[in-house]
What does this fold into?
Amino acid sequence: MGRYYNGDVDGKFMFAVQSSDAHTRFGAEEVEPSYIDYEISRDSYDDIVKELDSIDKGSIERVNKMFEENNGYNDEIQKQYNVTKEDLSEYADYRLGKQVKDFFDDNPEDDYCNFTAEL
It folds into this structure.
C-alpha cells in the first residue's frame, strides 16, 4: 500500500520518509479540490426509498406545477404558486434521490452508484 501522485508527472511517494507535500519544495502550490467523489451502496436502497417517502409530496407537486407553467422562477412566481425556498430545496433533493433510486432499479447487476460532484 502506498501513496501515489498522478498527472503530468507520476510516481509513488517514498514510504515513511516522504511527505505528501514534497512537491511544494519545488514550487508546487496546493489547489483546492473542485470535485468530490461519491459512492452509494445498493445496501442503502431501503433508506433511499424511505427518505424519498419522507419528502412532502405537496411541495413537490407545487414546484412541478410552477415549472410546468413557467420556464424559470422568481419571488413573484414562487408566491403565486405558494412555493418556498425550502420547497425548492426539497424538490432538488427529491430529484437527486429519485435518480439514485432509478439507477438501482434500472441496473440490478450494479452494487454501487458512483458519481462525481462539483464543489
